[in-house]
Design a protein that fits this description.
Structural class: alpha/beta
Number of domains: 2
Radius of gyration: 29 Å
Bound molecules: glutamic acid
CATH topology of the largest domain: Beta-lactamase
Order of helices and strands: HEEEHHHHHHHEHHHEEEHEHEHEHEHEH
Number of helices: 17
Number of strands: 12
Length: 461
């Protein structure tokens, strides 16, 4: 057994003994769920799938559909119009509360019923049937397999769904819903009765974690920006009235539903799902919350944990950098006695704000007071964020203004992205290897070239 499955199995065993909670009964068919059913599943960013317990039994998705339908409507409308129609504030009230923004009738957020019904209505389609079809296609793409409905649960919910209809009628009278309330709630009931397994939900959650690309099928289901906004709403509003405490204790974007499903997302890491029908007082799966609390703590998944920098950014800083060029005895002697004039600083890995700030600090510490040549070796850098490239360019421009000649060794894409200056002139020369970069500096030094020289009067700060 692989180590991830082993850990899941152990977690499953530990949590299965947990009793307490009530199976939802306001939809008669849901009350028939077996309170002992308990499955847990994880999908990694590499598309690998792990599970323990009953992760393959089907149940209706219920409110766990809400973030995915929100992502679909957000794709159709764009962020501004979406926010104008449905808010993004935790409601602080029960999932089926009749709470709309005074004045506009705008529902508080898309994770509770009023906002979810309004969101369903915002999915572009010619009629209700086409809208249901688009929603099912979307949920299926997130899951990576063709999903179907539980018609009995759908009928059971429709037969007892007057409160949801009341919400829809109220929104229509307030001007925040333009479609026929009866038809929209029918579509919403259909969306809630889509059948999934915990294993499916883990893939769906992993697709959000993976910037909208399903890591199992490779399909880009929604754009990265849509996935980010969806996760943000899940983080603040996804766990009914327990959303604040959940963020405090578990610290992951999540969504739960009345049938006992729960998804949580480790952005860039994995999607996890639990199925266990007994719910706590605010409507979240008791075992789901317990399992995710343990998992988050053990694996340090809480979003507010500062990222751990496992590798040092700066690999070396040194005076007297030398190339492999063969030099005459005279040249070698000259280079030896000018060893402080060519310095090299090497970096590795991804350059985000923290790493770039570290690198610039190291460069500052290494450049001598009198002008010389700085070789910045970025050959082992694997990525530079746009904001970091600008920061690096500004830092190097400052050093160039103080009279140093800057020579960068980097891989082609970074040279293309980073070589330049906001004013349009380049502050450094670029080479494809550290050796070539150092050799060029040596040639300059041996030819008696000054480094860039002191700044022109009035130039630089
Ligand atoms: N079908 C359910 C309802 O609207 C979904 C509720 C939920 O899972 O929170 O009543």
């Amino acid at each position: 057994m692989d180590p991830v499955t082993k850990a899941l199995d152990e977690l499953h065993r530990r949590i299965s003994g947990l009793k307490g909670g009530e199976v939802a009964s306001y939809i008669p068919k849901l009350a028939q769920a077996d309170p002992e059913d308990f499955g847990i599943a994880i999908t990694s960013m590499g598309g690998r799938r792990y599970q323990a317990g009953k992760a393959d039994i089907e149940f209706t998705i219920q409110s766990v559909s809400k973030p995915f339908v929100y992502a679909l409507a957000l794709t159709d409308l764009g962020p501004d119009e979406m926010l104008r129609r449905v808010g993004a504030e935790p409601s602080g009230e029960a999932f089926n509360a009749i709470s709309l923004e005074p004045g506009t009738g705008r529902p508080a957020n898309p994770m509770v019923n009023a906002g979810a019904i309004a969101t369903t209505a915002l999915v572009s389609a010619a009629d209700s049937e086409a809208r249901s079809a688009r929603i099912l296609d979307c949920l299926s793409a997130f899951a990576g397999r063709r999903l179907g409905y539980d018609e009995e649960v759908c009928a059971s919910e429709a037969a007892t769904g007057d409160r949801n209809r009341a919400l829809a009628y109220l929104m229509r009278s307030a001007g925040s819903l333009s479609d026929d309330p009866y038809a929209v709630t029918a579509t919403y009931f259909r969306q809630c009765s889509v059948l999934v397994t915990a294993a499916d939900l883990a893939v769906m959650a992993a697709t959000l974690a993976n910037g909208g690309r399903n890591p199992v099928t490779g399909e880009q289901v929604v754009e990265r920006g849509v996935a980010v906004r969806t996760l943000a709403v899940m983080a603040t509003c996804g766990m009914y009235d327990g959303a604040g405490e959940w963020l405090l204790n578990v610290g992951l974007p999540a969504k739960s539903g009345v049938s006992g499903g729960l998804i949580a997302v480790g952005p860039g890491r994995f999607g996890v799902a639990v199925y266990s029908p007994p719910l706590d007082l605010v409507g979240n799966s008791v075992r789901g919350v317990a399992a995710l609390t343990v998992m988050s703590e053990r694996l340090s998944l809480h979003l507010m944990h500062a990222p751990v920098h496992l590798t040092a950014t700066v690999t070396d800083t040194g005076h007297g950098a030398r190339s492999s060029c063969v030099r005459s005895a005279e040249q070698t002697a000259l280079l030896n006695c000018s060893s402080g004039r060519i310095i090299a600083v090497g970096a590795q890995g991804e350059l985000e704000f923290t790493e770039t700030e570290q690198l610039l600090g190291a460069v500052e510490g290494a450049v001598p007071a009198s002008p010389g040549w700085l070789v910045l070796d970025l050959m082992a850098v694997t990525g530079i964020r746009p904001g970091s490239a600008a920061m690096l360019a500004a830092g190097l421009a400052d050093i160039a203004r103080r009279g140093h000649r800057i020579v960068v060794a980097a891989q082609e894409p970074f040279l293309a992205a980073g070589d330049g200056h906001p004013d349009g002139h380049s502050d450094w020369r670029a080479f494809g290897s550290r050796d070539d970069a150092v050799a060029w500096c040596e040639d300059q030094l041996l030819a008696g070239e000054p480094s860039a020289g002191p700044p022109a009067a009035g130039g630089g700060s």
